[in-house]
């Protein structure tokens, strides 16, 4: 009898031990699959279940903060929703923005990573975040804001992503105007992705400042240097729309050293609109801009590229085109210091590996 009881106890101990090991293993697997910090951006991060307004994981919910200027959400302003994200957050927080025109400046600080802006669409509208600061405006301390601080939306948050939103700066600049830079979106995130967003302005529309960024199927609108900055970014299947009345430029990349691992790569984009615009201008001695497999309308200045009146930059800037088509892709009158890349030369700039996307994108 005693032996039988000891056998039963031993069996129970073994059973409990096995169960404990299984539970621990399950927790480890769960943490690896979503319970812990996910240092990447996925399609899931750009979606909200509108029926439940929450997406459950095994341990907790991915938090969704709703913004509705008419009431009924967690906040009436986008900045109010951003402020609700805990500092040093370690889980994805989705800010779900209802249609409307949100007249405000928004800042997403470095202390609030893993934030998504997701626009709710209806049949006629999507959310627009708009403001009208320009670089020559006076700031709180009485000095000019400068280009950086003119941004309607400024993002420093790591692993930030956005979809279904219009970012707008409503300042109307003309080519040659002084102090009229008005940024709609500034991105200084170490890593960020934008999918099907519209970025609208006139001069310096998108300040793609620093970091590695991916823009997919976005529409970017402006007149002069409307994509500018020092980042390392891939623009894939985007529409670049010039609204210049006479002359302008699409991109101005800043790079001061040949060892700076930065640049703008435009792949399978379409270029449309008005005016006569340069593909790029050399903002910095080693500016690097490559257009690959893009469809260019007849609005491209035949010379294609500008050294920004610094003739020595002709020797150091990397301005190149690869297998582009359309009336604007005719290279017969391009500046002789620009390049027509072969596939081996273009290859490093064609894929998400250019921005180390295999490390932080799961799409």
From TrEMBL:
Q: Where is the signal peptide?
A: 1-26
Keywords of the record: Aspartyl esterase, Cell wall, Hydrolase, Secreted, Signal
One example of the protein's molecular function in GO is: pectinesterase activity
An individual GO BP term: cell wall modification
Q: What class of enzyme is it?
A: hydrolase
Record flagged with keyword 4Fe-4S: no
Q: Which domain of life is it from?
A: Eukaryota
Q: Where in the cell is it found?
A: Secreted, Cell wall
As recorded in UniProt, its EC number(s) are 3.1.1.11
- Note the InterPro entries from the entry: Pectin_lyas_fold (IPR012334), Pectin_lyase_fold/virulence (IPR011050), Pectinesterase_cat (IPR000070)
**Pathways per UniProt:** Glycan metabolism; pectin degradation; 2-dehydro-3-deoxy-D-gluconate from pectin: step 1/5
Q: What is its main location?
A: secreted
Where does the Pectinesterase catalytic domain start and stop, copy by copy?
65-358
Gene3D superfamilies documented for this protein = Single-stranded right-handed beta-helix, Pectin lyase-like (2.160.20.10)
Q: Which family does it belong to?
A: Belongs to the pectinesterase family.
Q: What is this protein called?
A: pectinesterase
């Amino acid at each position: 009898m005693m032996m039988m009881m000891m056998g039963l106890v031993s069996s129970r101990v073994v059973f409990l031990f096995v169960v404990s090991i299984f539970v621990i293993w399950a927790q480890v697997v769960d943490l690896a699959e979503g319970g812990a910090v996910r240092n990447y951006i996925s399609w899931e991060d750009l979606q909200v279940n509108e029926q439940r307004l929450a997406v459950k994981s095994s341990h907790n919910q991915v938090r969704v903060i709703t913004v509705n200027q008419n009431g009924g959400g967690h906040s009436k302003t986008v900045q109010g929703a951003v402020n609700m994200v805990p500092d040093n957050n370690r889980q994805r927080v989705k800010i779900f923005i209802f249609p409307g025109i949100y007249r405000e400046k928004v800042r997403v600080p470095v202390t609030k990573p893993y934030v998504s802006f997701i626009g709710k669409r209806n049949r006629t509208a999507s959310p627009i975040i708009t403001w009208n600061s320009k670089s020559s405006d006076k700031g709180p301390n009485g000095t000019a804001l400068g280009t950086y601080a003119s941004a309607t939306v400024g993002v420093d948050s790591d692993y930030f992503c956005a979809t279904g939103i219009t970012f707008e700066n409503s300042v109307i600049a003309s080519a040659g105007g002084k102090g009229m830079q008005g940024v709609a979106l500034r991105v200084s995130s170490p890593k960020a992705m934008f999918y099907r967003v519209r970025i609208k302005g006139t001069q310096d529309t998108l300040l793609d400042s620093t970091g590695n960024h991916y823009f997919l199927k976005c529409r970017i609108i402006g007149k002069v240097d409307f994509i500018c900055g020092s980042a390392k970014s891939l623009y894939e299947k985007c529409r670049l729309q010039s609204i210049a009345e006479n002359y302008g430029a699409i991109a101005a990349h800043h790079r001061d050293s040949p060892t700076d691992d930065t640049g703008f790569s435009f792949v399978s984009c379409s270029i449309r609109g008005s005016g006569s615009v340069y593909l790029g201008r050399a903002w910095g001695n080693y500016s690097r801009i490559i257009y690959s497999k893009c469809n260019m309308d007849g609005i491209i200045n035949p010379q294609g590229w500008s050294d920004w009146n610094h003739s020595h930059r002709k020797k150091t800037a990397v301005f190149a085109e690869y297998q582009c088509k359309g009336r604007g892709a005719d290279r017969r009158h391009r500046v002789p210091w620009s390049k027509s890349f072969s596939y081996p030369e273009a290859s490093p700039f064609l894929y998400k590996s250019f921005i180390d996307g295999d490390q932080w994108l799961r799409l």
